[in-house]
Prior knowledge:
Number of domains: 1
CATH architecture: 2-Layer Sandwich
Number of strands: 3
Number of helices: 3
Radius of gyration: 11 Å
Amino acid sequence: MSKNSRIKLFGWEEGMQKIKLTLLQKDEFNVPLDTAISNIDKLLNDEEVYLEFCDLEEALSFIEKAKNLGVSSITIM
């Protein structure tokens, strides 16, 4: 299955729910656990994280959930 919707995550808010965000990536969007953990570490170090999704609807669903968990900036590419 090809991926065709890409998003960029950057920054985090105080109280970001790191474990829930890791599990969101892993359980709902099939990101490997080591990659999900690395993505959280990158956010905490003020690095950009890029994720690809199968479609725009899936990307929008992730964006809504990630913002609720404390990611401060998400851009659809």
